[in-house]
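User: My instructor asked us to take a sequence, write out its structure as tokens, and then describe one feature of it. I'm not sure where to start. Here is the sequence I was given:
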Amino acid sequence: MSNMTENTWGGARAGSGRKLTAPEGVPRKQHQLRASDSEWELIRQLAAIVKKNPEKVKEFLAENAL
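Assistant: Let's start with the prediction itself. The structure tokens for your sequence are:
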């Protein structure tokens, strides 16, 4: 049996894992809210759009203000 310190697979590596900051360099904070399952699905889809294309969401909100 080989020594466990000789293995190069597994464990923490530089650059691996989820990025802790948004593209602007600001840390993403954790938030909580209550929502039904159907509401949560819409929130989840919108959150994905916000992360990929925030300008598109800003444009939509400007055109469709409550």
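For the description part of your assignment, you could build on this observation: Residues 36-66 form one domain. Try explaining in your own words what that tells you about the chain.
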